[in-house]
Amino acid sequence: MSQKCYEFSCRVYYEDTDLAGVVYYANYLKFIERARSEWIKKLGINQKKMMVEQKKVFTVRRVEADYLSSAKFDDTLLIETKIEKLTSARVVLSQVISVKGVIIFKAIVTIACVNLCKGISRIPVNIFQIMLDYKKKNIFIDE
């Protein structure tokens, strides 16, 4: 069974664009960040609680991005997020943005778990298990 991806959609607002109505290149990183945040929330992971109780957060360690085409004002973006690799301290995700079925942006994003006092840290066991279960079965806790 191949893993499905988490789908998140959003609309391009005027503030996301330049004078010509084309999305400014840095905003694609904001779009995929929103999708990752919603994916983590959908998994049932409370990042604020993780930070307060365990002093750990997820941070972007690396992004490799390919800009294939441009989104424009009022386009609806579909952002797909999929786990490519999961280790005890890192998650490598592929994220793809498409408009009307056409892929316009691709990224490989590595997020790392960081202890606020000590640097790179293991992902908390319960959160790692949630992500592992999702990768294996593509399930959400609340479904």
Detailed description of the structure:
By secondary structure, the chain is of the alpha+beta class. It has helices at 27-42, 47-54, 125-137; strands at residues 6-11, 56-67, 76-86, 90-99, 102-115, 119-120. It is built from three helices and six strands, in the order βααβββββα. Strands 1, 2, 3, 4, 5 and 6 form a six-stranded antiparallel β-sheet that branches.
Give the helix/strand layout.
Blueprint (H helix, E strand, L loop, with lengths): L5 E6 L15 H16 L4 H8 L1 E12 L8 E11 L3 E10 L2 E14 L3 E2 L4 H13 L6
Query: Uncertain runs with pLDDT below 50, 5 residues or more?
Result: none
> Approximately how much beta-strand content do the residues carry?
35-45%
Number of domains: 1
According to DSSP, the number of beta strands is 6
CATH architecture: Roll
What is the gist of this entry?
By secondary structure, the chain is α+β, with helices and mostly antiparallel strands. It has 3 helices and 6 strands; from the N terminus they run βααβββββα.
Core attributes:
alpha+beta, 6 strands, 143 residues, 6-stranded antiparallel sheet, single chain
